[in-house]
Amino acid sequence: MTPWTDRAGNFSPLKAATLAAVLLPGCWVLYLAATDGLGPRPITEAIHETGDWAIRILVASLAVTPLRRILDWPKLILVRRMLGVSALAYALVHFTLYIWDQNWDLAKVFSEIWLRTYLLIGFAAFLGLVALGATSFDRAIRALGRNWGRLHMLVYAIGVLAVIHYFMQTKLDVFQATFLAGLFILLMLYRLAHWRRFDIAAPATLAAIAVIGTLGTAAAELAWYATATGVPASRVFLANFQFAFQIRPSWWVLVVGLGMAAAAYLLPKLRPERAPRGRRAAAKAAA
Ligand code: HEM
C-alpha cells in the first residue's frame, strides 16, 4: 500500500490530497531556507515553522474521528494514520533543528531540556508521539490488539502537553496558541459527548459544544494571562468584546464550532437519499 492508495490498492484522491497538504509546508520551509527567506536566524525560524506544523497536524489528526461522524464521511479514516505520522515527522525535524541550534552538543541539549520546563514538556510530547508512531504499523496494531486503542489514548495527553509547550514558549501574543488550544478543547468535548452517549451528529449537541468550547477557550486565555503574565484578568476578559483591534481567538473557536453544527444541519438536507444519521436517528428509523 502506497501513501496514495487505499487498502484495496486503488488510487485514493483523499489520501493523495492529504499527502500533498502535509508535504507542502515542509517544502515551503525548505524553499525559504534555500533562498535565504528565513530571516537573520534561519534555524530559529525553522524551529518555529516546524513546531507550528507539528501541532496543527496533530490537531488535524484528532479532528478525523469527530469529522467522520459529523460530516458522515467514513472514508476520512483513511488519512488519520498519515496525519499522525506527519505530526511526528514535523516534531522530529523540529527537535533535530533544536539540536543543530545547540551545535549538536547532546549534553547541552539534554541539560537544557532538563532545566527548562517548556522544553521538558515538549520533549515528553515528542516521546509520546514516538511511542504512537512506533506502534502505528499494521503488524504492531495486530500484535497489540485491544491494547492498541488504550495506548493510543495517549494522544490526548500529548495534545495537552503540546498546547502547554506552545503557550509557554510564546513570549507575548498568545493568539495562535489560544486558537489551537480552543480547537483542541472542541475536539475533546466532541469525544466527551460521544462517550457520554450524546448524539454528536445532532446540530443541537454541536451548537452546545461550540458554546462550551468558546467559554473554555476564553477561560484558558484568561488563566494564561493571569498566571503567566500578571495582566489583570478583567482586562483580558473585556478584550474579547473589543472588536476594533482584533477578533479574539475564542470567537473564531465559536465560528468553527457553529460551522460544524451548521454542517450537521445542512448536510442531511443536501443528501436526502442517505440513511438516517446519528444514534438517535438510526434508532428512530429502526423502530
Ligand atoms: C524534543 C522536544 C522539543 C523541543 C526540544 C522543542 C523546542 C522548541 C523550541 C526551542 C522552540 C522555540 C522557542 C523560542 O524561540 O523561544 C519551540 C517552539 C514550538 N514548539 Fe517545540 N520542542 C519540542 C517538541 C515539540 C512538539 C512535540 C511540538 C508539537 C507537537 C512542538 C511544538 C512547538 C510549537 C507550536 C512551537 C511554537 C512555534 C511558534 O511560536 O511559531 N514542540 N519548541
Number of strands: 0
Question: What would the principal axes of the Cα set say about the shape?
Answer: globular
Unreliable parts: none
What is the total number of structural domains?
A: 2
Distance between the termini: 41 Å
What does the model show?
The chain has 287 residues and is mainly alpha-helical. It folds into two domains: 1-169, no CATH class; 171-287, no CATH class. It is 76% helix and 0% strand. It is built from 13 helices and no strands. The protein has helices at 13-34, 42-70, 80-101, 106-115, 117-134, 138-144, 146-152, 154-169, 175-195, 203-229, 233-239, 249-270, 278-286. Helix 1 runs antiparallel to helix 2 (42-70), helix 4 crosses helix 5 (117-134) and helix 10 (203-229) runs antiparallel to helix 12. The longest helix has 29 residues, at 42-70. The chain is globular, with a radius of gyration of 21 Å. The mean pLDDT is 92. The chain binds protoporphyrin IX containing FE. Protoporphyrin IX containing FE binds next to helix 2, helix 3, helix 5 and helix 8.
Which SSEs are present, and which pair or pack?
Elements: H1 13-34, H2 42-70, H3 80-101, H4 106-115, H5 117-134, H6 138-144, H7 146-152, H8 154-169, H9 175-195, H10 203-229, H11 233-239, H12 249-270, H13 278-286
Bound molecules: protoporphyrin IX containing FE.
Keywords:
single chain; 287 residues; mainly alpha; 13 helices; 0% strand; binds protoporphyrin IX containing FE
Quick structural overview:
The chain folds into 2 domains: 1-169, no CATH class; 171-287, no CATH class. Helices cover 76% and strands 0% of the residues.
